[in-house]
Amino acid sequence: MDFLLTKEQKYIQKAAREFAIGEMAPVGREFDLNETYPEAIVEKARKLDLIGLFIPEKFGGPGLGYLEQAMVMEEFWKVDPGISQQLCSLTFGAEEFLLFGTDEQGKKFLEPIFTGDAVMGFAITEPDAGSDTLAAATTAVKEGNEWVLNGSKVMIGNGTRGTFMLIFALTDPDAARSKRHSIIIVETDRPGYKADPMHGKMGLRASDTAAIYLNNVRVPEENLLGTRGNGFHQLMAFFDRSRAYVSAHGVGLAQGALDMAVKHVRERKQFGKPIGSFQGVQFKIADMAVKIELARNIMYKAAWLLDNGTPDTNVTAMAKMYSARIAVEVVDEALQLHGGYGYFNDYDIERFYRAAKVLEIYEGAKEIEKMIIGRTIVGR
Question: Hey, which residues are catalytic here?
C-alpha cells in the first residue's frame, strides 16, 4: 500500500492550489455577497485542464482519474467554496456518458465542454422528490421518434447557464418502481425549456442554481442516455462516483477553515499572549486536524478504488458522510476561535461557515448515506 502521490499528482495539486489562491481568493467574498457568476475564472480553469479531470481524452477531457479530480477540488475548496462548486458542476453528470452513453453521445456533448462551447447540468431534484428520487414526476413520453418532456425541477446547478441538461424523467409509469425512470439529454435552446435563477442561498452563492420548467419539450429519440427504464440504477452508479470527489468539498472546506483558525490564534493576543499558546486552544486545533486527516484518507481511498476499477458504494458513502460532518464541525470550531470577528463577513470564516451545511444535504443527505452504510452492514 503506497500513500505517496506521484510527481504528476503533486504537480496537479500545486497547480490547483496556485490557481485557487491567484484567481479565487481576491474575489471570493465579493462574488459570494453579490451572487456573481465567475465567468472569467470558469474559462481560465477550463483552459488549464482543471475541470472534469476524470473525463477521457477521447471526449476532450484531461484523461486523469477520480483521485486527481478530488485533489483539485480539495485545493479549490480550501480557498473559496462558492466558485469551487461552480467549477465542479461544469461536468456534473458526465459519468452517465462514460458509463452508459455511446461514443457518439460522448463526443457530441462532452467535447464542447472542454472547448468552452458547452456547460452541462443534471436535473434530478423536484419540489416533491428530493431524497426519494423515485418519486420524480417529470415525464418523458415517446411520440414517434421523439421524447416529449413535461414537468419541473428545482435547485438545479447550471439551470440558467447550461447548454444541455440530463433530465431524470418518468418514462414507464406502470413498471416496477425502480424501473420507471430514464435519463434524457435536453438541449436548453429547445422550445419549451425555461429556467429561473434561485436567489438567496445561504452559501455557495457564486454558483448557478435554478428552477427548471419543461413544457412539451421535444428531443430526438437518440437523446435517451443509457437504457430506457434503467435511470434509477444509472443514477446510483453516478452517485457512487461523484460522492468520492464531492467528499473533497468537505475536506477542502475543513482544511481551509483550520488554516484560517491557526493563522488567527497565532496572531490574536489575549491575557498578554497569543491565544494559540493556551492548551485548550491547542486541543481544539488538534481535534480539528485529526478529523480532517481521517476524512482525507477515506476520500482518497474511495477515489483510488474507483480509479482501480473496484468501486465500493459503502466506502464512497462513508467518505461523503464523514467529510461533510467534519466540515460542519471544524468550521464551527474555527469560527468559535475567531470570536466575534468570525461573525462578520469581512472574515472569510463567515463565508465558509455558511457554505458548510449544504455538504450534509446535497449529493445525498447524510441520512441517505447512513441508510446505505447501515443496510450494507446489517442487510435489509
Answer: 363
